[in-house]
Design brief:
Blueprint: H1 8-23, H2 36-50, H3 71-83, H4 94-111, E1 118-122, H5 125-139, E2 144-148, H6 154-161, E3 166-169, H7 179-184, E4 189-195, H8 207-216, E5 220-224, H9 241-245, E6 252-254, H10 257-260, E7 268-272, H11 308-320, H12 328-348, E8 352-354, E9 362-367, H13 374-390, E10 400-405, H14 406-412, E11 422-429, H15 439-452
Parallel strand pairs: 2-3, 2-4, 4-5, 5-6
Antiparallel strand pairs: 1-7, 6-7, 8-9, 9-11, 10-11
The structure holds pyridoxal-5'-phosphate.
C-alpha cells in the first residue's frame, strides 16, 4: 500500500463531516467546484512536474535540511486549509488561534520559559529572527547586534532592513569564533545572537559561557535555534548539555517547527522571555480585533495574515509527539545516533575523513585525495556530489557541498597544502529517522561511487 493511502479514509471522512458543518448554514450553489475534467488534467501535470524533485523522502537524500512533513501534519493542514482560517486575529480563526497559543505554550515549556512570556508562530525562521532583532533594536537603538560568522546570513541582512549596525564577531586564527573579541567590545553591543545548531555544521555556540558576562553588561541575548531548537528535548544527553540547560536565560528564542518539528514549510516561531516587549508591536487597526480583550496574535506579530492551518498542523503533531524524550525526543535521538554512526564509519575508512565529530546531526567530510592539496579535495568532493545525483535512482546519493575557509580547514588538517583560499567538502544533514538504519548503505554507496570516479 502507498505510504499515504492508510490515511485517506480518515481524511475523506473528516472532510465529509466538515462539509456537514458547512451545510448547516444552508445549501448554496457552489461556484468553481464543477470543472473536474480540467482539474484532473492539471493535477496530473503537477504530479509529473513534482517528480523533478530530489528524493527528499528517502534516506539516500542526505543533503540539505529537507524532509516531508509527518502524515499527521499533512492531514491536519489539508483539512484546515479547506476552512482557511487566518491567525492574524482571533476573529480570523478562533479555534486555530487557540491551537497556536497551546502549541507555543508547549514550546515555552520546552525551553523553560515561565508564564508570562510572549510568543507566536511565524511563517518561518527569517521573519521570527526579524522580530527578535526588531525588539533588540527598539531596546538598544544606538548599539550593534553582534553574531558570529557561523550565524545565519539573515541576521546581517535583517540589520540592513532595520537600519541598525551589525557586528560580525571575527574568527580566531583557527577558524573558531573569537568570543574574547566580543567581550572586549561589549560597550558597542546591544544584543548578541547565539546560534544553537548552526545551519552549516550544526554547531552549538557556548550560551552558558557567554551569559554571565553579557548579563553583567546588560547585553540582550537572542538565541537562534531555528534549526537546533528541538534538540533541547534531549539536551541533557548532548555534549553541549550545559548550554541547553541555560536556554531559559535567553531574552528571545527562535525555533522552526518546519525544520525539526515534522511540519510543512510555513511554520517558524519566536518567543520572548519578557512579555512587555509586546508594546513595541502595538498598533491600532480599524479592521480587526473586535472579539476579545485578550492580546491578539496579530498585535504581537509583524506579519499580518498567517495560515491557521500551520497552527493546526503543529498542534496536531504535538498531540502525537509531545516535546518529551519519548515523544519527539526519539526522532532527535535517532538523528544524532545516525550522525555518530556515519561519522564512525567514515573515520574507519581509509578513503574518507570527517572534518570533525558532529555535535548534532550534520556532518562535513571529504574523500582523501592522492596529493594532499585543498584543490584536490574540492575537485573530488564536487565530482562525488555530482556522481551521486546522476546515479540510477536505486543507487543514488544526494549530498550537499560545504565551503570552508582554508585556515579553518588547515587548523585541523595542517598536512594539506593550502593551494586555494577555500576548500569544498561534502555535507550531510541526517535529519530523517530513516537515516539511522541507512547510514551503512550511505557509506557503502559513497565508497562505490568514489571507486568509479
Ligand atoms: C533555517 C535557519 C534560519 C532561517 O529560517 P527559515 O525558516 O529558512 O526562514 C535562520 N537561522 C538558522 C540557524 C537556520 O538554520
Amino acid at each position: 500500500m502507498n505510504r499515504y493511502e492508510a490515511y485517506l479514509p480518515i481524511l475523506q471522512s473528516s472532510l465529509r463531516e466538515l462539509d456537514d458543518w458547512r451545510t448547516q448554514y444552508g445549501e448554496e450553489q457552489l461556484v468553481g467546484f464543477t470543472d473536474t475534467p480540467q482539474i484532473i488534467d492539471i493535477i496530473q501535470d503537477l504530479r509529473e512536474r513534482l517528480e523533478g524533485n530530489y528524493p527528499f523522502h528517502h534516506p539516500q537524500y542526505a543533503g540539505q535540511m529537507l524532509k516531508p512533513p509527518h502524515p499527521i501534519a499533512w492531514i491536519a493542514y489539508t483539512m484546515t486549509m479547506t476552512v482557511n482560517p487566518n491567525n492574524h486575529a482571533l476573529d480570523g480563526g478562533p479555534p486555530t488561534s487557540e491551537m497556536e497559543k497551546e502549541a507555543v505554550a508547549r514550546l515555552a515549556e520546552m525551553v523553560g520559559y515561565e508564564n508570562p512570556y510572549l510568543g507566536h508562530l511565524t511563517s518561518g525562521g527569517t521573519i521570527a529572527n526579524l522580530e527578535a532583532l526588531f525588539v533588540a533594536r527598539e531596546i538598544h537603538p544606538q548599539k550593534a547586534i553582534a553574531a558570529s560568522s557561523k550565524a545565519h546570513y539573515t541576521h546581517r541582512r535583517m540589520c540592513r532592513v532595520l537600519n541598525t549596525e551589525f557586528m560580525e564577531i571575527p574568527d580566531t586564527h583557527d577558524g573558531g569564533t573569537d568570543w574574547n573579541y566580543l567581550m572586549e567590545n561589549l560597550d558597542k553591543v546591544g544584543t548578541v545572537v547565539v546560534t544553537m545548531g548552526t545551519t552549516g555544521l550544526g554547531d552549538v555556540e557556548p550560551l552558558a559561557d557567554l551569559l554571565p558576562e553579557l548579563n553583567k553588561h546588560g547585553v540582550r541575548v537572542h538565541v537562534d535555534a531555528a534549526y537546533g531548537g528541538f534538540f533541547k528535548i534531549i539536551g541533557s544527553q548532548l555534549p553541549s548539555s550545559n548550554h541547553w540547560a541555560s536556554l531559559n536565560e535567553a531574552d528571545s528564542i527562535v525555533i522552526d517547527p518546519h525544520k525539526h518539528g515534522l511540519q510543512p514549510y510555513g511554520c517558524g516561531s519566536i518567543m520572548f522571555k519578557d512579555p512587555s516587549v509586546g508594546s513595541f508591536f502595538k498598533h491600532d487597526s480599524p479592521y480587526t480585533y473586535f472579539t476579545s480583550d485578550d492580546l491578539h496574535l496579530g498585535e504581537i506579530s509583524l506579519e499580518c495574515s498567517r495560515a491557521g492551518a500551520s497552527a493546526a498542523a503543529f498542534w496536531a503533531t504535538l498531540q502525537l509527539f509531545p516535546l518529551s524524550e519519548d515523544g519527539l525526543g526519539e526522532y532527535m535521538t535517532s538523528t544524532v545516533t545516525a550522525a555518530k554512526l556515519f561519522y564512525r564509519l567514515l573515520e574507519r575508512s581509509d578513503k574518507f575523513e570527517c572534518f570533525k565529530e558532529p555535535e548534532l546531526d550534520i556532518l562535513a567530510y571529504f574523500p582523501i585525495p592522492k596529493d594532499e592539496t585543498l584543490s584536490s579535495i574540492s575537485k573530488l568532493s564536487t565530482a562525488l556530489f555530482q556522481a551521486g545525483a546522476e546515479a540510477a535512482p536505486k543507487e543514488g546519493l544526494h549530498l550537499s557541498l560545504y565551503k570552508l575557509k582554508a585556515k579553518e580547514f588547515n587548523a585541523r588538517f595542517p598536512e594539506y597544502k593550502a593551494d586555494d583560499e577555500t576548500v569544498t567538502l561534502l555535507r550531510s544533514v541526517l535529519m530523517k529517522p530513516e537515516h539511522e538504519p541507512f547510514v551503512t548503505k550511505l557509506a557503502g554507496r559513497l565508497h562505490t561511487l568514489l571507486d568509479k570516479l
